[in-house]
Design a protein that fits this description.
Two copies of one chain form a homodimer. Chain A is mostly beta strands and about 575 residues long. The complex binds pyrroloquinoline quinone (2 copies).
Chain lengths: ~575, ~575
């Protein structure tokens, strides 16, 4: 079933420095710096996965959206809960994996009031004997991985301004890279590197404002003309609008040790209503390449200049090397909210291809000569006019939920959404710490009636290999393994193992709540392969259940409730770790 | 390992009318009117139980103590959550048992403030196409079992007076038998029969006060002299004290269709401080036999006259017929909080035997000629004096957690506690709707350091056959099966299958939270045997976790926190249904 194009050339593969040989652990949510979420473990494979069974379970004690990846280092698993962000260490060497310790950062409860999309957290990460994570009240914590003792705790934001943190840090080269959330509160987004030993700031780069703040200097060499010029983070906005301009950072960060670069995407400009902010609104909704040591920007590319629909650029950038028109190219692969799968040269920011992984009607793709997306003017959200049937929606054809890449199949596995929306732009006022949105949205299922899909994608050929339709948005992450399996969960609570080449569902298990978490796999102290997932519905799409929202108000959860009413009849709130193994 | 005594005679057996042939369902928490919690299903047995695995799971969405028995009628399972007491119907005929409907009685949230022991509920019950259950705010509800539509909802108590409901109703003979909780709030206890069709009261009997209120009339023929006399519910109290005298009803009710009698135990007298209420404090802490149609009392026996230690008489009364000194006798079997296992003639109230199933130092057992318990005066809780090392504690050698009886082994399987306490009586004031206790208690592990045990008990021989020690109190229920297995869960979260004859743990699975629920088993629509349990720690013993109590305050949860501090390091809050089957 592999396309002949990719079968003839050698398959894409992550750079070895960013995806070293598998050690059977899973020490960071992305699995490796390249972000492939691929494990070389193959004890569980297409032949035997049908026998997979629950090995043990653990309650997070918090019935909110569980987005964290359970990580494993040595014989310890680390599980991070949504707010109040308690970190649990489980001893995998003992039957039933009893608790080793718990660490409670005691975040301010008022943080819950300014979190845009449930009180989620995307997980802890490990490096050099420490576990690092962010808290909803905008602190970053380092904890001794053995004892659970706090090593440092650094406050980086102010919840009174709507600043929160939900992302999983990237820990690399003695630094902890983190960013701020709050794009729906007019927070001015930034990314920051902390010293892993002390928690002190090493560098900080804003995503809006003057070049100096954005760490744009002489090294900055964007590929396209529209990213070139002085202080575009100021001049592509109405006066001062960049100060409440969003561009927050809450997705996964990848890292190329050879290039010494990190890659991440700033979120949407604020407010949503585009009529408030004529211009490209740099440096929102794009991807930055920055020097990991200094934070200096090397290049930037904007997926969605002058954002119309809350299309945060934060989705994953997976680092691969691949054959492109006869040349081996260092690329990053990025499935954007706008429905396009981008292949970008990660040394230059040149877009090699941008193919639709999901059909949309809001634009016609990218003009590769200019790098600019071609907007459909009839879907432009003019003020005080209800524009109907815009596809995709604000959360996009795909939200934060990360893909996985298998170099064995050469395929990218993408969880995505099939949603459309009605949108009315209205005029918002900026008041610090309150929502700054300016749009009334109602979402509904896209063509076909299903709201989610899980697809295998041939990156080089730029086409879908197989797809699985899901009743609800595919809001969780993905795991690919050398057993030719991909794992993902759906919002009904089914955790599935799929044949990586055919898309056949080989096994599925009904967890106790909808799944929006990130599956991981590891070799246990007993030498056996295990697969782990947190169940517990929530996040933006599942807030109707996790926050007990009234299904009668379709505009609740910024319009998501309109599409998700039925979720209340299908699943319940939860928060449980499931770990599976073969008998 | 069976004692030779019981092997020679025919084994005890529940009356056929109260425990009819197994239909593969589990329609009431007690399994049958006799309360044996025994199933004739034997597909899962001592040979194959090691292969048992999780079939599916379901989140109750509420992280409080899960005490309910999951019940099964036809191809539907009914799961009742703690407050807010949502009833879920799951379709067992579909993969993953999806939700059929949910019914939310919307109890008043203030009810949580007057619940003594977490916001638990012991489960729904089924009869004639209806599911019946109680709500924490003291309503009883009947719901159409097929559609989830409310048929009736009757308010029976007032939370402003501290009245709540937590018990599982008994549905029998067109009636729904329920009682009120609130012994720690000076609630005057009663039991009541509602018309199953209309929810209207058929009869109501108080457990304190004048004979007329107690439904003591000419039919009342107690066995012992101390239960004889006019208006003992008034005269065994200081003036008017019976009005706030407790004797609430929150345990399981059993029913003998041949005798037309129900059996249940009133709870402790209020307040705990015994110096406030000289006298026997009838009719608390005993067992009533009442006519199911009229509520008329036939007899009463008081396990603990003039209660010293909060020894509610509510523990299960299992109905058995057994050979006793050459005669077949109709008995009830009752493991009391005071550590004694009573065998009582259920036609007369005569105590045939009272043997220690757990060692205690607070009394020396029962004088069978008078029926009275022999108190150790040096453990008498005089006012303003700390009496140390009283064993057992206020929750008793065994709390509500029900035993199971297998007529195949002839053994009773008893979850119980090994706890001692320091007690200081203080003077309480009665203020409606506020705690009325008058004791400062601190509990600790009993001799040996373990806090729980799970034992097999030979009723006729009056002795233990085997026992399993548990680190924490054994706070969940028990299931016995014809597969020669007994199932129970512990507060660490392990769900265990034990060889019914030897006590060998043949299988165990780590659920996500501590277990205090009641296991059940059923034949699924596919003809296979399943075993179900709710996991989710809480109740009185687990309130430290479910209510986030401060472990530094040993007197919290009426002194239970002192013993349970470590539970916080061992388990987390939860609320998950687990259903197991063979591969
Ligand atoms: O602009 C922001 O700062 C911001 C933050 C977050 C977040 O931190 O969870 C989300 C979003 N935006 C967002 O646009 C979005 O779609 C989203 C989904 C989720 C989620 O967890 O399900 N979070 C967020
Ligand atoms: O006196 C009462 O009315 C009353 C009510 C309840 C209850 O309704 O749960 C308990 C008790 N007492 C009690 O004494 C007790 O040990 C107890 C344990 C539990 C539990 O669910 O773990 N409930 C209750």
């Amino acid at each position: 079933l592999l396309s002949s194009a990719s079968a003839q050339t050698s398959l894409p593969t992550p750079p070895a420095s960013a995806a070293p040989a598998d050690d059977g652990q899973w020490s960071m949510p992305t699995k490796n710096f390249a972000g492939t979420r691929y494990s070389e473990l193959s004890e569980i494979n297409t032949e035997n996965v049908r026998d997979l069974q629950v090995a043990f379970t653990f309650s997070t004690g918090v019935n909110k959206g569980q987005e964290a990846a359970p990580i494993v280092v040595g014989s310890t698993m680390y599980v991070l809960t949504p707010y109040p962000n308690i970190l649990y260490a489980l001893d995998l060497s003992q039957p039933g994996a009893p608790m080793k310790w718990q660490y409670n950062p005691k975040p301010a409860s008022a943080a819950q009031g300014v979190a845009c999309c449930d009180v989620v957290n995307r997980g802890p990460t490990y490096a050099d004997g420490r576990v690092f994570f962010t808290t909803l009240d905008a602190h970053v914590v380092a904890v001794n991985a053995e004892t659970g003792e706090e090593i440092w705790k650094t406050k980086l934001g102010d919840i009174n301004k709507g600043e929160t943190m939900t992302m999983a840090p990237l820990a690399a080269k003695g630094k902890v890279i983190v960013g701020i959330s709050g794009g729906e509160y007019g927070v001015r987004g930034w990314i920051q590197a902390l010293d892993a030993n002390t928690g002190k700031s090493v560098w900080k780069a804003y995503n809006t404002g003057p070049d100096a703040d954005v760490k744009i200097g002489s090294a900055f060499k964007p590929f396209y003309d529209s990213e070139k010029g002085k202080d575009l983070g100021v001049t592509t906005w109405p006066p001062d609008a960049w100060q409440q301009g969003g561009g927050t950072v809450w997705g996964f960060v990848t890292y190329d040790p050879d290039l010494n670069l990190i890659f991440y995407g700033p979120g949407n400009p604020g407010p949503w209503n585009p009529n408030q902010r004529p211009g490209d609104n740099k440096w929102t909704n794009g991807v930055f390449a920055r020097d990991i040591d200094t934070g200096e920007a090397l290049w930037f590319y904007q997926w969605n200049p002058h954002d119309l629909f809350d299309w945060d650029g934060i989705n994953e950038n997976i680092l691969l090397d691949l054959d492109w028109k006869g040349q081996r190219r260092k690329v990053l692969v990025h499935p954007d909210r706008n429905g396009l799968l981008y292949v970008v040269d990660r040394t230059t920011g040149e877009v090699l291809s941008a193919s639709f992984y999901h059909a949309v009607n809001a634009h016609q793709g990218v003009d590769l000569s200019t790098g600019r997306i071609k907007i459909n003017q009839d879907k432009y959200p003019l003020q005080n006019k209800v524009v109907r049937d815009i596809c995709p929606t604000a959360p996009g054809a795909k939200d934060w939920s990360p893909s996985a890449f298998s170099h064995k199949t050469g395929l990218l596995y993408i969880p995505h959404n099939n949603l459309c929306m009605d949108w009315e732009s209205v005029e918002p006022n900026y008041i610090a710490g309150t929502p700054y949105v300016g749009a009334e949205v109602r979402m509904m299922p896209g063509p076909g009636g299903h709201m989610g899909e899980f697809s295998a994608w041939d990156i080089v050929a730029g086409k879908e290999v197989w797809t699985i339709k899901e009743r609800f948005p595919a809001w969780g992450g993905t795991l690919a393994t050398a057993g030719d399996l991909v794992f993902y969960g759906n919002m009904e609570g089914w955790f599935k193992a799929v044949h990586a080449r055919t898309g056949e569902v080989l096994w599925q298990f009904k967890t106790d709540s909808g799944i929006i978490g990130q599956p991981t796999t590891y070799r246990g102290p007993d030498g056996r392969q295990y697969v782990a997932i947190l169940s517990g519905v929530g996040g933006w799409s599942g807030a109707i259940v996790s926050n007990d929202l009234d299904p009668r108000d379709g505009t609740a959860a910024m319009g998501f409730v309109n599409a998700m009413r039925e979720l209340k009849n299908v699943t319940t709130k939860g928060g449980t770790l499931y770990v599976f193994k073969l008998p």
